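FIELD: query
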Amino acid sequence: MEASKTPDTTALKHRPLTPLRILRGLICLVIFLSTAFMFMVYFGPAAFLLLRLFSIHYSRKVVSFIFGHWLALWPFLFENINKTKVIFSGENVPPGERALLIANHRTEVDWMYLWDLAFRKGSLGCIKYVLKSSLMKLPILGWGFHVLEFISVERKWEIDESTMRQRLSTFTDPRDPLWLAVFPEGTDFTQQKCEKSQKFSADNGLPILKNVLLPKTKGFHACLETLGNSLDAVYDVTIAYKHQCPFFLDNVFGVDPAEVHIHIRRIPVAEIPTSESEVSAWLMDAFVLKDQLLLDFSSQGHFPRERTEKELSTAKCLVNFTVIVAVTLVFTYLTFFSSFWFKIYIGLSCVSLASATYFSIRPIPVLDYVQAAVFQRKYK
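FIELD: result
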């Protein structure tokens, strides 16, 4: 792969797009969308909206358990069905840590491959992303992003700062497992964006990067400042592809990529500076290192210090797939062939999820609300 080039949609794919692959891909899309919808409308309101009125901690545990099993369908698709090799290198990260992940953004599906790492570390249900707000408007998927507590941003710091800090402040409970993934470049890599980034760097005396864009530092600093004491480490993740960067439909139809390479550096949070200027310099140095890693990858075809992670169990993945499809079939029967009240429930569920997502509603426990009201009245 030529790491510094924009993904070429006309390039020859790793596997040919045969009629069988098209059929299989369409079946996968139907399964993913139908299971996502049924799980969201039947479990979402109770697990996210109702249970949070009593306990945010237990609401998150339930959401993590239910939707972590649904998310496990994707690594199963990537590795067991598409036969994409996921190759890990760098440091091994222990399971159970609360971590902030920073990654380069090569293409629109980078974030999905972090699930392959999270799955192996038992953190699939608690991984959250900072993502652009337009994605929250996607039907069904936007509801899921809200229920999973992803942080949406407008990519304008004067608008995003207060909202982002408020959202981050709700993740400080050390009892709640957390992997928060941030893409400091703010957008996916293209040659045109790279040239614009390089011009800005040259005009401002910053490093000239060829394989990544100049990182935006304010959001990363806000994450560290708000979450710092509750985090164990920062995972510096660098992602590369053989032989070209994939797009979403490449994954669905199984034509690309041949290999995904994920390099990890684990930095204890105590070793990262705290002042904004020092954090900015630290992040810049991290991206200079990413740039060199990707440059070496383009010539050598691998990252340094490759290591072995456990393979996904096909049997366990098949059991998980079977259970999810079976539950979805039961929900489908109840919705279309059972009592009229199930149709009413689905309608109310869709309205509640759409409203919660649109108005960014995250209920707080009733007891917390009462205590806050009493405290406010007492000290008026």
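FIELD: remark
Residues 41 and 346 are 6 Å apart (CA to CA).
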